[in-house]
Specification:
- The complex is a heterodimer of chains A (about 550) and B (about 350).
- Chain A contains 23 helices and no strands.
- By secondary structure, chain A is mainly alpha-helical.
- Chain A folds into 2 domains: about 25-55 and about 335-555, Orthogonal Bundle (MetI-like fold); about 55-325, MetI-like fold, CATH 1.10.3720.10.
- In chain A, about 40% of the residues are buried.
- Chain B is α+β, with helices and mostly antiparallel strands and about 350 residues long.
- Chain B has 2 domains: about 1-235, P-loop containing nucleotide triphosphate hydrolases (Rossmann fold, 3-Layer(aba) Sandwich); about 240-360, Beta Barrel (OB fold (Dihydrolipoamide Acetyltransferase, E2P)), CATH 2.40.50.
- Chain B has 8 helices and 20 strands.
- In chain B, helix 5 links the parallel strand 7 (about 155) and strand 8.
- The longest helix of chain B has 22 residues, at about 165-185.
- The radius of gyration of chain B is 25 Å and the shape is elongated.
- The chains are: A mainly alpha (about 550), B alpha+beta (about 350).
- The interface of A and B includes residues 186, 189, 191, 200 and 281 of A.
């Protein structure tokens, strides 16, 4: 009799699990796979295939997409390696602060980064002004607006955190004695690096390179805003083909190409992660850190710290600065004071402040929706079952399709919903959902099963176990997930740029910023700066919250 | 061959080495012995060139090598955790130093095979590092250090990561290998080595000479037998595992006596530097006591109670508590296993051999 009851109970639990999972699965099916299928359907036209195959224009776009990603990856690795070395080997005052700083660009919305680089390196930017003043020049010496240099700089700025975290973390775990052994045996510092260190950190280098390549391959906002019309990648071309040239079939075919390539790259990455799980000589991270000793070391470390700090902070500082000074260099609050006004001839149809309010509303609702879906999903997934192995990657799939593809799919599938704010909210929820799952899963998996068993033996029902054990432990992770969802929604640009109609009153802050940046005039530029500053501050606060509440070393990428 | 001259080193304003001077003769194995944090590893790393001294100099055959970078010193080093290259196999590990010296591959492989044979690992060249046991890894590390014929071999707690039984066995092997290695490295006088350890048994078993270090200073230098016979300080005696150390006041006389908590004791060994009346410590060796009768009133007789017996194989250690007035003194004394001890808790009387007691300076 007991066995029967137990078996029934177990069956009941499994049924409950399926029901609980149904909601996120349904959401994913309707708002992720269905639009993708539509894109696929759209793309199957002879005209699109012919155009794509015959016009050299597309070949050059494809080629540019690949090589700019490759070059960006290479430059990021080169810039990131010294920083990774610094964090892996040296202890210095302000170390954790600087390490946190390197991650800040990573959580900044693309629009903010693009705006920041225009603020810093634009014709009227502080660097050009300083050079003009210093050398008494008649015009700005750095003409970087709408150049490849600017794009590459922004990409490096964005992804340096990946190198510092992945490679730096790996490097710090290498046994320093191994390198010392090579040195005693007669290897010069360079030789020891090449023969010992490099092969040993290679797994993390390849991981970082693959990730950065993926990120820069699908980069959208940076290229759209900083590159201008003469630079086009797969991503921006999807947008242009649909919005400007009204060719949804070509856009769909390009989307398909993008998805195929990203998934291929993601599976290579996943395979590589498994492959690198070979046992190396690992030791605790703490013991390897030391303070710089000799004068040479001290100088090098100081230079690295200063260079890194300057590189990370100057664009953001320039952003704030240019939101606060007018064309004559006088301090002004005019750009902020004008935010509640709807100016005549404005590029958007509501006062900028409405965009701020919209974004905060979207973000709060995204937290609620993505949080709910995430908790449901992880609660079921965390229990071992035969489903987990293929459900877990399934829920990560939205990371693979770029936001642009997602937005495009929404537009062709749910065109009738475009006038309501609902579609933007759904898109944000879908983009934030994998982040929520990724923040919750490791923490939940880290809970020892014996804790739940102990609670059950003491008389707690499954629901009670969840409330008394899982939920309190998850509390902090939940907070992190919520902040993640909030910042992701605040900064989302790719999908929203598709969904929001030009004359919509439901537009978001990043869209407003992009529109203002695309317009001439000091007031437009200043207001773009002011809005970017607000967005940056919101995300920075969110970032500080994440760093504070995150369980140490759980869930890095 | 190796001379250290007034080496000083501090980390973040804490002095780790306070003016260390030391000479190592060619073919000699010298052990740096001390508790963790005494500075022995730092000293070894300064000799290797992995750490720079704040002041002082390192001379090799009279030539100042203080400023020579580590990879140009031509030393060999064995690390505590072996630091084998995990991405290279045994043979590639051993051949690494030879490649750095531009040996032709053919010759280098031959030499590597020789080195592996010396440490008893002939035929292991193709093995991956993670397939080896701890003891085998330790031997590979030794072969790798010896293969390029180093002028000086440095060993940093090379047996520290091994379990006790294996360590006991390898101690003897290691000394034999080091003494034979002279042939491999082309030095008839044998290899010169500096060996860092915190284990006195290891230091005694392997080294020709032992340097006892404490808090960044050299406490005593000497052959193992000298160190054992005449520890130069309270610290050295304690560190070598001697437990019966009593506060004492020198009373003088011939043979000399000292006032101790056990009453006046006669002993034979007196450091000549001590004046009468000096407050110092008396060391009673564990083998000092013989049982006597309860009515023995001769010199050096103490009456106590047997508190505990611990069996150690060939000998047994008796803990004897002697109560004099208010104070209880506990002595740990060794007796032959063949000797029948009284029951625990019974009174015992002991006569202490004057030749087995020395006054510590």
């Amino acid at each position: 009799m007991w066995q029967n009851l137990l078996a029934n109970k177990r069956r009941g639990l499994r049924l409950l699990g399926v029901i609980v999972l149904l909601l996120p699965l349904l959401f994913l099916g309707l708002f992720f796979f269905y639009p993708l299928v539509n894109i696929f359907r759209l793309s199957i036209t002879a005209a699109a295939f012919n155009d794509l195959a015959q016009r050299p224009y597309f070949r050059s776009i494809l080629w540019f997409t690949f090589w700019q990603a490759g070059l960006s990856t290479l430059l990021t690795l080169l810039a990131g390696l010294p920083a990774a070395y610094l964090f892996a080997h040296y202890d210095f005052r302000g170390r954790s602060l600087l390490k946190a700083l390197t991650t800040i660009p990573f959580v900044m919305p693309t629009v903010v980064v693009a705006a920041a680089f225009r603020a810093l390196l634009g014709v009227n930017g502080p660097i050009n002004q300083a050079l003009v003043g210093l050398f008494d020049l008649s015009r700005a010496p750095l003409q970087l607006e709408q150049t490849l240099t600017m794009i590459l700089l922004a990409h490096v700025f964005y992804n340096v955190a990946v190198v510092v975290r992945l490679v730096g973390g790996f490097w710090a775990n290498l046994n320093p004695r191994v390198v010392e052994a090579a040195r005693v045996l007669g290897a010069s510092p360079w030789r020891a690096f090449r023969e010992i260190t490099l092969p040993l950190i290679r797994p993390s280098l390849v991981s970082a390179a693959l990730l950065i390549y993926l990120f820069t391959f699908t980069s959208f906002g940076v290229i759209l805003i900083l590159g201008g019309p003469q630079f086009s990648t797969l991503e921006t071309e999807i947008y242009r083909q649909y919005v400007t040239f009204l060719r949804p079939d070509i856009a769909a075919l390009l989307s398909l190409l993008q998805i195929m390539f990203t998934f291929a790259l993601m599976s290579v990455y996943a395979r590589w992660q498994q492959h690198t799980a070979v046992s190396l000589d690992f030791r605790p991270q703490q013991t390897n850190l030391r303070r710089p000793q000799t004068r040479l070391e001290k100088t090098a470390v100081a230079a690295l710290i200063a260079g890194l700090g300057l590189f990370l902070l100057s664009p953001l500082a320039a952003l704030v600065w240019r939101s606060l000074v007018d064309r004559d260099g006088q301090f002004t609050l005019a750009y902020y004071q004008a935010l509640p006004e709807l100016r005549r001839g404005s590029v958007i149809f509501v006062p900028p402040l409405t965009a701020v309010r919209n974004s905060i509303g979207y973000a709060l609702l995204t937290v609620l929706l993505a949080g709910l879906l995430g908790v449901l999903t992880t609660t079921v997934l965390v229990r071992p079952s035969r489903w987990r192995n293929w459900l877990d990657p399934l829920f990560m799939l939205p990371l693979g399709a770029s936001a642009v593809t997602l937005g495009f799919g929404y537009v062709v599938t749910f065109n009738w919903l475009r006038t309501s704010p609902l579609l933007v909210l759904i898109a944000h929820t879908l983009v934030a959902f994998p982040f929520v799952v990724r923040s919750l899963m490791p923490v939940l998996l880290g809970i020892k099963p014996s804790l739940r068993e102990a609670a059950a033996v003491l008389g707690a029902s499954p629901a009670r176990v969840w409330r008394e054990v899982d939920l309190p432990i998850m509390g902090r992770a939940l907070l992190v997930a919520a902040v993640f969802a909030f910042t992701v929604s605040m900064g989302e640009f790719g999908a929203t740029s598709f969904i929001v109609r030009p004359n919509s009153g439901y537009l978001t802050l990043p869209i407003a910023i992009q529109r203002y940046l695309g317009q001439p005039g000091a007031l437009n530029f200043g207001q773009a700066m002011a809005m970017s500053t607000i967005l940056m501050l919101v995300c920075a606060v969110g970032f500080v919250a994440i760093e504070r509440f995150r369980y140490a070393d759980v869930g890095e990428f | 061959m190796l001379d250290l001259n007034a080496i000083q080193k501090s980390f973040d304003d804490t002095a780790v080495l306070r003016s260390i001077s030391l000479s190592v003769a060619a073919g000699e194995i010298v052990a740096l012995l001390g508790p963790s944090g005494c500075g022995k590893t730092t000293l070894l790393r300064i000799i290797a060139g992995l750490e720079t001294a704040d002041s002082g100099e390192v001379l090799l055959d009279g030539e100042d090598v203080t400023a020579v970078p580590v990879h140009r010193r031509g030393f060999g080093m064995v690390f505590q955790d072996y630091a084998l290259f995990p991405h290279k196999n045994v043979g590639q590990n051993v051949v690494f130093g030879l490649r750095m010296q531009q040996w032709p591959p053919e010759k280098a492989n031959g030499r590597a095979a020789q080195a592996l044979e010396l440490v008893g690992l002939a035929g292991f060249a193709q093995r991956a590092i993670h397939e080896l046991s701890g003891g085998e890894q330790q031997r590979v590390a030794l072969a790798r250090a010896l293969a390029p014929a180093p002028r000086l071999l440095l060993l940093d707690e090379p047996l520290g990561a091994l379990d006790r039984a294996l360590r006991e066995r390898l101690m003897l092997d290691l000394r034999a290998i080091l003494k034979q290695a002279g042939g491999l490295v082309g030095r008839p006088e044998g290899i010169t080595a500096v060996y860092v350890t915190h284990d006195q048994a290891e230091a005694f078993a392997i080294a020709d000479r032992v340097v006892v270090m404490n808090a960044g200073r050299v406490e005593q230098v000497g052959r193992p037998t000298d160190l054992y016979a005449r520890p130069a300080s309270h610290f050295v005696a304690r560190f070598l595992g001697m437990e019966n150390i009593l506060p004492a006041e020198l009373l003088g006389g011939q043979p000399p006596r000292a006032q101790t908590p056990l009453g006046p004791l006669v002993f034979t060994d007196l450091p000549n530097s001590l004046p009468v009346g000096a407050a110092t410590n008396l060391l009673i060796r564990p083998e000092a006591a013989r049982f006597t009768t309860a009515d023995d009133t001769g010199e050096n007789v103490v009456h106590g109670r047997l508190a505990d017996v611990s069996f150690r194989g060939r000998y047994q250690i008796a803990t004897i508590v002697v109560t004099v007035g208010e104070t209880a003194v506990s002595l740990k004394l060794e007796f032959d296993t063949a000797e029948t001890l009284p029951d625990i808790g019974q009174p015992v009387s002991l006569r202490l051999n004057p030749q087995a007691m020395i006054l510590l300076p």
